[in-house]
């Protein structure tokens, strides 16, 4: 009898559970786009989950998106031209020698708790960003400021020697090491954002990593939005900040940042109306969207490039002719059209063309004939006796496809056999960092819009060089000559000379310029394409009349 | 019984210690550190970070202090998420993964057992072949194919169910539960078919039929109890497997569960997180195996008898 009851009870509970589980499905809910358009909430696909929301600790692009909604620097950028526009600073002046910047802060800028934003906030925040114990990986963004590098490295410990001076509550003077024409470009990078001192000190020491000040309820910011919710691996919610000085212009009531690591999942979410904007798009879907739904697909050249590093310390690769031969036998036009297929632009220079008016002269082209000749001159006619060479890439389907295509081109045009090798991301970083490779895939995204962010990495022993390449004239141009010249055109000329040396010597092979790709729901208005993929959230708006637009 | 449980629990301690030690030294031996990045990190920054997370100490010292923390239930801070402890991350993801695993288990049991029983009632007829072939397909079809397929049909074409999320939209738990449960349903179908076939040919079933009981009573009341013993033995390890194996399903459906950061931690070289989740899953697997052994002993008179005789 007893057992019968237990059995009956089990059946009953199970039935109930299943019903609850399934019943939910019967009430067809509205999707995020529809509710979002009605309530003014933007649903934004944001890549990986943010590591932190502390601007002086984070390193990624997802964090960048959230932080530009939550905080505001001295200047921002016009998304159309990328030229600086007023933000917390209402105006600024630059001394004749280009070394001293004086910022006048607006009086109506306040923190989300009502405190005024003052010059002291910036001085203190930059002091904090340079604290060694904080482990700020982007501290170098502040290094154009006089003595800041020495301070961050612990060579001096008196902050008053660093070129940041508070003249009065609303005037900040910044002294630089050199005239740095792109200095204003750096000011809306999160590492230069102000943070609210009383809040940080309430939750820990200023240089403490991961104190609780960035949690919802604690966070105090000065941006157009404030932090409402941060559900790990689920979403970060921000709402309009009524205290923001330009709140009248902010059209959205809030943004939900959805961390979606898997691009295929993201695309499915977009198709079912859960997202207004995706961070990316699966590469094999680009062609379909281009053909059937071009109005949803937004692509634009991006300030980054895909290239191969060559280890110039290996005997056979130390020969410039061999490197040139390898570069000239890659048909990057065919590669972007038939392998990557995402609308990437073949690259013949290292700095992406038109980086704030700078375009380097391309020094090489696809020329298998000449490549064969160069290789023969170097002692490997038709690839004979070419030493075993490995092409290293981090494990990923798209890198593999490109590597296979290039392996074939080298075999077809030069007769050399290259071995492919893939490694897990962190292992790959280790191998490249230790110079333990022959040829390695790489990518570089500019930190700011200026050729310097692409060229200063190739100086002798530069932290990101890793090729063993070194050229005294190049070092002189990049480190000594260019930084002292305030005039943009003159400086670009020196930069171009340096880049010509780089492309002649070829410790690297540029392959293509990245492009940003995203899917955008037609109801999202106000996006301006630019090479930084930079978004000013306060310009965005949602049009409810377009909620029902068919996106299938 | 009590002695059996205690001895099994004691056996678990060296097992876990081996798991901890092996994982601890293996993650540190793997190339690439937690703080390496594409843009080279300045040496002074790396030094500050290593000091903060005590990675500048000798390895044996790190090992001992880790064991000490672990004994106090402290898995340490996550390297990847500053300000988050591993305890906090596990506590955040576990309820979600456990709920997913539970629903998947229900799906597996309901579909698997009914298919298995139906098949066993009329062996070697279409009623046997059809569910068993379906089960074979279920075993063969990996969740990274099953998931997107279900999403495409029910989420995008028919628009019946949400394509992702967990607890945000009505019905968003159905597709992940089915995707994760289907592979196990297939296993259960085969197990229960085998079990039922054996039981249904026993004398006591014949007796029950001879008494004139209706067939459904014979099957449900007398047949199932014996026929499901192999199924129950499988449930413990299966549940542990569902918990630790939910990574793919969590990624496909954008579910903030434990499985996802178990795998992510390895890619990120988040040492404490790798260790924390590994130790946690190892404990879980040991416990669930023990649990299913206990249940098996409890419902199977043969085993109970052996245990009493043997010791």
What's the Cα radius of gyration of chain A? 26 Å
If interface size is counted as residues with C-beta under 8 Å from the partner's C-beta, which chains form the largest one?
A-B, 62 and 59 residues
CATH architecture of the domain at 90-257 in chain B: Orthogonal Bundle
User: Which overall shape of chain A is indicated by the principal axes computed on the Cα atoms?
Assistant: globular
Helix count of chain B equals 14
Distance between the termini of chain A: 57 Å
Largest beta sheet of chain B, briefly? Answer: none
What is the CATH level 1 assignment of the domain at 90-257 in chain B?
Answer: Mainly Alpha
Uncertain segments of chain A: 1-7, 22-28
Contiguous helical run count of chain A: 17
Q: Poorly predicted ranges of chain B (pLDDT <50, ≥5 residues)? A: none
Structure in words:
The complex is a heterodimer of chains A (552) and B (311). Chain A has 552 residues and is an alpha+beta fold. Chain A has helices spanning 2-23, 32-39, 61-70, 119-129, 148-152, 183-186, 197-203, 263-271, 286-292, 320-328, 332-340, 368-377, 397-414, 425-433, 452-455, 472-481, 488-505; strands spanning 41-45, 75-77, 84-86, 89-94, 100-105, 164-168, 171-175, 225-231, 235-240, 254-258, 297-310, 345-346, 389-394, 418-423, 439-445, 508-519, 524-525, 541-542. Chain A is 31% helix and 18% strand. Chain A has a 6-stranded mixed beta sheet with strand order 12-16-11-15-13-14, sandwiched between helices. A 4-stranded mixed beta sheet of chain A has the order 1-10-9-8. Chain B has 311 residues and is mostly helical. Chain B has a domain at 90-257: MetI-like fold (Orthogonal Bundle). Chain B has helices spanning 2-29, 43-52, 59-71, 86-121, 126-140, 143-157, 174-200, 203-210, 215-227, 229-244, 247-253, 258-268, 271-299, 301-310. In chain B, α1 runs antiparallel to α13 (271-299), α4 (86-121) packs antiparallel against α10 (229-244) and α11 packs across α12. The model of chain B has no long low-confidence stretch (mean pLDDT 86). Chains A and B meet through α1, α8 and α14 of A and α2, α4, α6, α11 and α12 of B.
């Amino acid at each position: 009898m007893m057992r019968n009851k237990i059995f009956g009870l089990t059946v009953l509970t199970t039935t109930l559970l299943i019903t609850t589980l399934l019943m939910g499905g019967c009430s067809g809910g509205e999707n995020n786009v529809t509710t979002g358009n009605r309530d003014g909430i933007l649903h934004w696909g944001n890549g990986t989950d943010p590591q932190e929301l502390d601007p002086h600790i984070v390193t990624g692009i997802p964090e960048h998106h959230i932080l530009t909604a939550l905080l505001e620097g001295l200047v921002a950028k016009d998304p159309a031209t990328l030229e600086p526009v007023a933000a917390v600073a209402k105006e600024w002046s630059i001394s004749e020698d280009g070394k001293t910047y004086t910022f006048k802060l607006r009086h109506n800028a306040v923190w989300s708790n009502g405190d005024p934003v003052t010059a002291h906030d910036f001085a203190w925040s930059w002091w904090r960003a340079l604290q060694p114990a904080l482990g700020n990986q982007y501290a170098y963004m502040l290094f154009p400021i006089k003595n800041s590098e020495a301070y961050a490295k612990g060579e001096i410990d008196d902050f008053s020697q660093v070129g940041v001076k508070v003249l009065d509550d609303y005037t900040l003077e910044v002294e630089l090491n050199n005239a740095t024409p792109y200095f204003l470009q750096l000011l809306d990078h999160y590492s230069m954002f102000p943070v609210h001192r009383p809040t940080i000190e309430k939750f820990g020491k200023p240089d403490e990593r991961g104190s609780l000040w960035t949690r919802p309820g604690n966070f105090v910011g000065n941006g157009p939005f404030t932090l409402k919710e941060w559900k790990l691996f689920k979403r970060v919610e921000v709402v309009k900040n009524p205290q923001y000085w330009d709140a009248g212009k902010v059209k959205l009531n809030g943004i939900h940042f959805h961390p979606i690591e898997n691009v295929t999942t993201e695309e499915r979410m977009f198709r079912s109306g859960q997202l207004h904007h995706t961070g990316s798009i699966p590469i094999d879907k680009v062609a379909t969207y281009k053909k059937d739904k071009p109005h949803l697909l937004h692509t634009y050249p991006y300030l980054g490039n895909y290239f191969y590093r060559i280890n110039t310390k290996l005997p056979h690769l130390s020969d410039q002719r061999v490197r040139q031969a390898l570069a000239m036998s890659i048909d990057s036009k065919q590669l972007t059209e038939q392998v990557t297929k995402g609308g990437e632009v073949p690259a013949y220079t290292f700095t992406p063309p038109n980086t704030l008016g700078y375009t380097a002269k391309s020094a090489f082209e696809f020329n298998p004939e000449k490549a064969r000749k160069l290789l023969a001159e170097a002692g490997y006619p038709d690839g004979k006796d070419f030493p075993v060479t490995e092409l290293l890439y981090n494990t990923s389907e798209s890198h593999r496809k490109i590597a296979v295509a290039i392996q074939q081109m080298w075999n077809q045009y030069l007769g050399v056999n290259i071995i492919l090798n893939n490694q897990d991301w962190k292992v790959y970083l280790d191998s490249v960092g230790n110079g333990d490779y022959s040829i390695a895939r790489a990518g570089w995204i500019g930190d700011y819009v200026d050729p310097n962010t692409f060229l200063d990495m190739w100086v002798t022993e530069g932290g990101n060089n890793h090729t063993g390449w070194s050229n005294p004239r190049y070092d002189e141009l990049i480190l000594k000559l260019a930084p002292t010249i305030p005039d943009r055109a003159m400086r670009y000329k020196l930069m171009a000379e340096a880049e010509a040396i780089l492309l002649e010597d070829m410790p690297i092979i540029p392959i293509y310029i990245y492009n940003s790709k995203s899917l955008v729901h037609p109801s999202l208005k106000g996006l301006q394409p630019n090479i930084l993929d930079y978004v000013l959230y306060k310009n965005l708006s949602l049009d409810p009349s377009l909620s029902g637009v068919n996106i299938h | 019984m009590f002695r059996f449980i205690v001895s099994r629990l004691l056996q678990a301690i060296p097992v876990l210690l081996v798991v901890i030690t092996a994982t601890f030294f293996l993650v540190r031996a793997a190339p690439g550190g937690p703080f390496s990045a594409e843009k080279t990190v300045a040496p002074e920054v790396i030094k500050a970070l290593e000091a903060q997370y005590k990675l500048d100490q000798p390895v044996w010292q790190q090992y001992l202090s880790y064991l000490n923390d672990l004994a106090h239930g402290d898995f340490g801070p996550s390297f990847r998420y500053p300000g988050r402890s591993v305890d906090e991350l596990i506590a955040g993801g576990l309820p979600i993964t456990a709920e997913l695993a539970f629903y998947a288990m229900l799906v597996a049991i309901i579909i698997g057992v009914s298919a298995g029983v139906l098949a066993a009632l009329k062996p070697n007829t279409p009623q046997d072949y059809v569910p068993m072939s379906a089960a074979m397909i279920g075993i063969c079809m990996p969740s990274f194919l099953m998931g997107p397929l279900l999403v495409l049909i029910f989420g995008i074409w028919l628009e019946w169910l949400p394509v992702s999320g967990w607890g945000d939209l009505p019905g968003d738990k159905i597709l992940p539960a089915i995707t994760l449960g289907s592979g196990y349903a297939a296993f259960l179908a085969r197990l229960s078919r085998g079990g039922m076939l054996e039981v249904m040919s026993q004398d006591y079933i014949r007796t029950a039929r001879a008494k004139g009981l209706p067939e459904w009573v014979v099957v449900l009341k007398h047949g199932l109890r014996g026929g499901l013993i192999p199924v129950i033995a499988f449930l413990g390890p299966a549940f542990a497997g569902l918990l630790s194996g939910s990574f793919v399903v969590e990624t496909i459906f954008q579910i903030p569960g434990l499985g996802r950061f178990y795998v992510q931690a390895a890619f990120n070289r988040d040492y404490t997180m790798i260790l924390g989740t590994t130790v946690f899953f190892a404990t879980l697997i040991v416990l669930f195996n023990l649990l299913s052994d206990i249940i098996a002993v409890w419902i199977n008179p043969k085993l109970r008898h052996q245990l009493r005789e043997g010791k």
